[in-house]
Amino acid sequence: MDELLEILNDLNPDIDYQNEKNLIDGKCLDSLTILTLITEICDTFDISIGPKWMKNENFNSVEAMWKMIQTIQEEE
Amino acid sequence: MTITSLTFIVFAFATILAYYVVPKKYQWCVLLLANIVFYAYAGWKAACFVLFTATSIFFGALGMERVLAKQKALFAAQKETLTKEEKKAVKHKNQRRRRRIMLFVLLANVGILCVTKYTDFALAQVNSLLAALGGGEVRYELNLIVPLGISFYTFQSVGYLLDVYWEKISPQSNYLKFLLFVSFFPQMTQGPISEYGQLSRELFAEHPFSYKNYSYGMQRMLWGFAKKMLVADVLSVYVANVFANYERYTGITTLLGAFCYAVQIYADFSGYMDIMCGLCETLGIRLKENFDRPYFSRSIAEYWRRWHVSLGDWFKNYLYYPIGMSDWSRRLAKKTKRRFGAHIGNTLPATLALLVVWTATGLWHGASWAYIVWGLLNGVFIIVSMWMEPVYVKWKSKLGLHDESRAFRAFQILRTFTLVTFIKVLPEVGDLRRGLGLWKHIFTDHRLPTGVGQLLEFADTGKLWLILAAGGSLMMLLVSVLKSKYQVRDLFNQLPFAVRIILLSCGAVLVAAFGGMAMYLFGGGGFLYAGF
Amino acid sequence: MRDSKKALLATGAFVLLFALLSGAFLMFSTPFTHNYDWHLREQLAGKLDFLIVGASHGQCALNSRELDALTGCNSYNLCYDAEGNYEKQYLLREELTRNQIKTVVLELSYDTMQAAGTTGFTDSNVFTVMRMNSLADRMAYWLGHVKLDNKLYVYAEMMYLGFFEWRHPQIPFDAEQAALKGGKMLPGQDQSLPDEALAATHHENWFTLASFREETVNGFTDLIQLCQAHGARVIVAVVPVSDQCLWRAENLDAFTEWANAYCAEQNVEFYDFNLLRERFALLSDEDCYSTDPMHMSEKGARIFTEAFARIIQAAADGQDVSSSFYQSYSEMQWDSPYMARFQAE
Lengths: 76, 532, 345
Hints:
The complex is a heterotrimer of chains A (76), B (532) and C (345).
Chain A: H1 2-11, H2 31-45, H3 56-59, H4 62-75
Chain B: H1 6-21, H2 27-42, H3 44-77, H4 84-132, H5 150-165, H6 175-183, H7 185-188, H8 196-204, H9 211-245, H10 251-282, H11 300-306, H12 309-324, H13 327-340, H14 342-365, H15 369-399, H16 406-425, H17 432-444, H18 452-455, H19 463-483, H20 488-492, H21 497-522
Helix pairs in contact in B: 1-2, 2-6, 3-4, 3-5, 3-6, 4-5, 9-10, 9-19, 9-21, 10-16, 10-17, 12-14, 13-14, 14-15
Chain C: H1 3-28, H2 36-44, E1 50-53, H3 56-61, H4 64-71, E2 75-77, H5 85-98, E3 103-107, H6 126-130, H7 135-144, H8 148-167, H9 175-180, H10 195-200, E4 205-206, H11 214-229, E5 233-238, H12 243-248, E6 249-250, H13 252-266, E7 269-272, H14 279-282, H15 285-288, H16 298-316, H17 329-332, H18 337-342
Parallel strand pairs in C: 1-2, 1-3, 3-5, 4-6, 5-7
Helix pairs in contact in C: 1-8, 4-16, 5-11
């Protein structure tokens, strides 16, 4: 989770990731940031995020992202 | 069926009445029946195309699901005996099967879209090439029907197909329910392009009658009719005058005409959305919003997050992300980051994805070089902004500019509105050459109008219509400004009932009388985006 | 209160207020504009015995005052711009009911029978509405007679004219116009096409029966049957258009063939005055047509009305008038002044 937070803070340090639960629905992250985020997550955690996971609910909060990463790791 | 007609009003009321009279579990059937009636007006030939798309994608999705279901059953039955490698092999084989089904159905439907919309353009390019090579010509006389709303329902259905392929959603097993999703009449001519997950929840839920939904929906429909009939249809005359004869007018007048076009197209498109979203609201159905005060955007990128939102989302979800997240894109990002740093490494793959998206967006809007250039222009502005972001941050810091200062925000809004207007008019003037000619004319004709009369000489419909169009445009601006701080509809509905009814009746008389007359005098009735 | 009851109340209040506001405009527009026509016809009710029904060609080509002097009848020209069969039927029914009509002339032309094109014959328009006197009549017409697809347009135009009436009356009552008893007299044309331009237009408009609208033909048949039901003599007449129009048209014999067969089937008299042998001598483009080559000028109407009256009276007396006409457009075209002028083959 710390690595994930580090990635997010590098991309946009102005957001309070601990409390923000609407990162996508609230338009806090734009599409370029999201694309960069996904690339960083894939590289850092050595996973492949397919289109199957591209749902707003998987990226709306740090907790949701972390859960998604863990699920993908288990599946792989 | 012309939307701005009494026939449509009667149809809408009949649908609303039937919807709430039938038992709630059959409400979706009423909608399907309404679709059939709506499409019957458009012609049965066009309906065949919709049926083909609905049927092919319905069975394609079920076919892919069957492959997955068989795989699940196999893994469950042979949980102990199958090794990890064997499971992987089975998954891989099934994934290829599913991809074949998906590609076959996708290509069939996108193929129909391309043939109906782009054959003329493609053949024209072939003939140009042959002429450049010294002769020969492909003669053709195609009388292809372009089915009503083909771009919209094809994209919506393909989105569903891909969502099933990517296992984001489970497919619909009821053919009639799926047909309703594909052919939902409020969306047929101009969208919004909805995702299956969101729209199906709305369509198939049971909706009890709500006075709030009914009154808010009706008010919104009236607002939509007003925008279309009193603003868009009148401005269309002025815009047509300017586009056809810009050489006659001064540069300033031509620029004013271009701004009129920006207002016209917004009133036209968002007016349609208000009518249809309003109608759906009376039925308790929430359609995706397509506009979010787009002319208050501070950058082109933001503008495209606020204008025709559903199309932008579609391209983002089904083109931009798949390209950007692909293996080759990630490899490119990694390599580039190592050599040139994080900013370039992250921006380059996005750039390539955006170039594809914006070329496709241009083509979606029209089969012409003007539209392709239009799309690429939008893309280039967004891409350049992305690349220049670190430079902008430095400049703003050096110049002491704050993002949230009023003056800077005003500058950004005006700049973006002007840029967007310039880009918008390019494909609308006739062809690319004339579009560029109009730009040149604005910048090179420095004559000053001798007075208001000359400034507005393209507005040759008489004072009454000019006042109505200007008044309507100002109302739209006022509402947009208020929307940033308030829920305007809630504000309106706080007024006493008698006041509301009087205002709404007066508004309706104004729209029906003058809007109806504007339609007749200026040849309105059709919507600009209905041709896509 | 239940939501559905609230909705019904609100909708009812809205519709009522909408109707009251609309009525206010329409009431004010009642006495003005084309309404003088209603007053005239009211004054003449019970006295008329001859009606002319059609659209703008008939409106401009037949002068009721002249016709009365020539034939001793008491005629009224009910024709109006772009009047569709619905409107013709409405007005015809009104006059047939309150007068002893002996003769009805139904004006016909090849362009009125065709699909929309340049004439724009919508099935309902505001002109008839404006020729009614009371709000009740207008509402009854709008509710019961105008098709759903056209209701918004007719409503809008009624309201639009009503709005302008608030400011000042559009067309005041004119004694001169009243004496005409319907119809419209146009000034003569003040320009003509240069020779080269005119020569180039030879046979540029191909007439085709395929463009006839079945609905329009059926509507015309209804008019004939309405007249016959009241025992009136029915004369289907094509009023002559200018030589220029005929020079441009091609394949009009298909129209004549159709019209002859149709009128024989309906058991009515048919005269295509385009084929009147005297037309080239009597009706020159320069003198007898307005700036719009389809419509006669006042002078042309006087001349034509005389020829028209002569023919129909001779026919009524049992004379064979067929020798007064060319048999076909193909035959007629050789005598066209343009044929000699341009020496076309």
